[in-house]
Amino acid sequence: MQAPNSSTYNKIGFHIGPGTNQEILGLWLNSMSLENIPVFLTVAGDVYLLDSLSRRLTEPNTLVFQVRPDDLNKAMGEEFRFQESAFYEQNQGHEAEAAERYWQLFQSLLPTNLMRDRVWIELLNNIALFDAPAARAAQADWLGEFATALARLVTNDQYKVAFWGWQSGQPEPHVWRTDGMLRLLHFSQRYPDNLAMSFHEFSGRLDTISPDAPDSGIGRFRHLWQICHEEDIAPPPIFITEWGWTRTRIPNPGTAVTHVIQANEELYAHFPEVRGAALWTLDREAGSIANQVADIVDPLVKMTLSRQFEITPPDLEEMAFGRSDWETDPYADYDTVSSQQGDEDPTFEKVDERSLLGNDSFDSGQTQTSYAPPDIRQQQMSQVFPGGSTVVSLAAEPEVEEDRPRQVWLKAPASSEIELLVSANTPLAEVSPDARSDDLLVWYWLER
Predict the structure, then answer these.
(1) Are 241 and 66 in contact (CB under 8 A)?
(2) Fold classified for 7-318
């Protein structure tokens, strides 16, 4: 069964890695293969799984290999400190030399039997730009020149690579207009079978997958697409190598599948350059979210086999990205897939509840779990957190029935403002790294 030229299949695939349930993965792959539906997969760190899949999956399937951040940092040592401004100052004008050294070190992380004609490699992982506009522009320009030099090396060696694994919400539109990035895009259009751009896209919330929701990281790739068309550059292949709601939870299966349908209908189906998006995650090393995602594989199989999505070419005049016709489920933020008792994210650490209420040290870089006091009320949500961060607003409470959840966002302590996400349906308060490193999500029990 082949999709007509005017339609496409579901573009949402999976992020996988060590410990991925092979039976679940096999269900997905076998079901798609029987109907000749292409799949999109990001394989994180597992070279044995990568080798097995690369021998099975050929074009038009897309297989991306993602090096683990810890492995990447270990290989690079102190040479490539991409998040430090001093690194760019020291290497200004030496992008080609840096690219040669980086590629030399990076190749040590690749399996010797890598099938170069079938596997894409994501270079870097979760990169973000500086906050200050001037520093951000200089950093982007350097990265563009560096990537162009890298692109010359990898195409000469006949590899397939994707730049950069942009962190969710990154980069800003003007970044693509720096000389270095434009040079990279011009060079990339000469090698569409070898050079791609990759993004991580998370909505940061469970009630919607809309790119128009506040602080959503969904749909950032459109800035690249728009600038390519304005500059008369053929857009490169685009990979969403990590995609979803948050890094620790997904909605219930019904809501999740509805959101996947929306993401295809309203966004990804209309961009042929987007090869696919990898739903985070079936990798058990990422915690209990792997079990949640496993629960929606079967309904996603059924949806994918039964639906095609019409392709409507995007209109540049509508690329202001102000659409608001996405559905929002006000209760999906808490109606999540259940985990087995005790099946929590293994990175959580138990902490005293006072740390959540501002009476103890608060380390925003550490994953924490606590039981919040049962008497927290909306009027009590103006606690000042250590370090100058303040709970500044509680989202307007929707009309809810007894014991239905309320919700509120928590902004990063480092930003000097905190908005809380509060849900009234659970005694467990979790503070955990969310889709972006500077966002946190909290669930509180609220007595009614």
Answers:
(1) yes
(2) TIM Barrel (3.20.20)
